[in-house]
Amino acid sequence: MSFFTEAQVKEYNENGYIVIRGLLTAEEVCQTRDEMKRIIDKWYDNFEQTGEEGSAWEEIVNRDPAVKRGELTPGSRYRAVRRLYRMAARKEEFFVRQAKHEKLVDACQKLIGNDIRLLQSMALLKPPGTAEKRWHQDNAYFRLTPLDIMGCWIAIDRTFLENGCMHVVSKSHHAGVAQHKVPEWAREDQGGMLYSLADAPESAEVTALPMEPGDALLFHGALKHFTPPNKSNCDRYAVQYHYAAAHCQPTVCPIDMENSVQATGGSGDDDKRHAAFDCDPCVEPQFWFFRKAEMTVVGEEQGGVYV
Ligand SMILES: O=C(O)CCC(=O)C(=O)O
């Protein structure tokens, strides 16, 4: 079935993003929030019984580093959590189905390619008092080429300036991915979260995108975007999926991958292996988190692994 129009394709290609109002129904929005809380409850119950947390990368529930360090005691377990990761890869059925939402698949096929992989599924909780997500472009993390990559950020709560709605720089995707780095003042346990554009955009270039629950932002893998701190008393739940066309390939060499979070190891002559890849810029590979697709959305199963 066709949902996404030619006019929407044009708008996305020109601006690097488009907001789809009411992608999810009110009922789907409530179910999404319930599912997020169910996963958090499941994780906490296990944590309280066993004391097991899992490794930083493999962990589905990502708590605020200040909570982990015992420096912050939030009002509830939900407010301790900043993100859920890889729900689809972990076969959480609700999120597997949502990632394959027919409107999203239609948009993906019109925007990035016929065969589609889910690069990542994520829930973003941003409780009151939490910090900004600094300016970045998602392909600075993925490092895939060509740039047939689309993000979909869905508001579960009403999002507005004070609780940290999405902000974008329209048309910024045309210039490709600019330099990213971790600020010098970052703590070691914050590096991945703070990896961001070396030069933040001027405020005159920025568009704020307040959204209602169920609205979705579809955005290009090189679009500059950011969310400000949550200065309100309200929660700001969102879910996010990233899709890549099945023909996308890594642009970095295996040696750098070996230093990355998802290192799989490797062998052979380092110089030759470097030479076989476009290694420019070979910087901070430890922040290239999301190199394994979580699942195939459309097309042949290939294990969903890029590297
Ligand atoms: O939801 C947010 O606050 C920011 C999400 C985002 O841009 C990201 O995870 O890349």
Notable characteristics:
307 residues, alpha+beta, Jelly Rolls, 8-stranded antiparallel β-sheet, 4-stranded antiparallel β-sheet, 9 helices, 24% helix, binds 2-oxoglutaric acid
How would you explain this protein's 3D organization?
The longest helix is centred in the N-terminal third of the chain and has 25 residues, at 26-50. This protein has one domain (6-251): q2cbj1_9rhob like domain (Jelly Rolls, Sandwich), CATH 2.60.120. With 307 residues, the protein is of the alpha+beta class. The strands form four sheets. Strands 1, 2, 3, 4, 7, 12, 14 and 16 form an eight-stranded antiparallel β-sheet that branches. Strands 5-13-8-11 form a four-stranded antiparallel β-sheet, with no helix packed on it. It has helices spanning 6-15, 26-50, 65-68, 93-99, 102-111, 139-142, 191-194, 254-258, 270-275, and strands at 17-20, 61-63, 81-85, 116-124, 133-136, 144-145, 149-155, 166-169, 180-181, 196-197, 206-209, 216-220, 225-227, 238-245, 249-250, 295-298. The chain is globular, with a radius of gyration of 19 Å. Residues 259-289 have low confidence and may be disordered. 2-oxoglutaric acid (AKG) binds next to strand 13 and strand 14. 2-oxoglutaric acid (AKG) binds at residues 124, 126, 133, 138, 164, 225, 227, 238, 240.
